[in-house]
Prior knowledge:
The protein is mainly alpha-helical. Helices cover about 80% and strands about 0% of the residues.
Amino acid sequence: MKIDWKRLIISLIISLGTGGLSALLISDNISIYKTINKPPFAPPAILFPVVWTLLYLLMGISSYLIWTAKNNNQEKANALFVYGIHLAVNFLWPIIFFNLRAFLFAFIWILLLLFLIITVLILFKKISKTAALLLLPYLAWVTFATYLNLAIFILN
């Protein structure tokens, strides 16, 4: 399989750009993680940028595989449309959680994000099993983040 470098770079810019811009917008408020009550198994704050960078890379590669797949264009367009909606929801969650400190609303929002990740996985799997598999660590992490979000809401 020949790599279409232009499409790969665009896919990575979109995913990493989403995460990067969101991180930039919450940078003044990220310190609240140190001061709020956290549940057992809450990871140290230093772990989050490392994990999220890896997950955004995997998302970008996954979306690239869909974009360049030889499948029906309408099927690809639908999958990438839902992926785009999912990125918008993903982008807003940290703003709701850190900037607004609306922990209950953030929990409801992350449930929506989980639903969209599962939907994207299903749509991507119809086109590329590899693309879907690349999203499994993301699904696992957001499932864990959902536990953290709910526990933080309850504890604070």
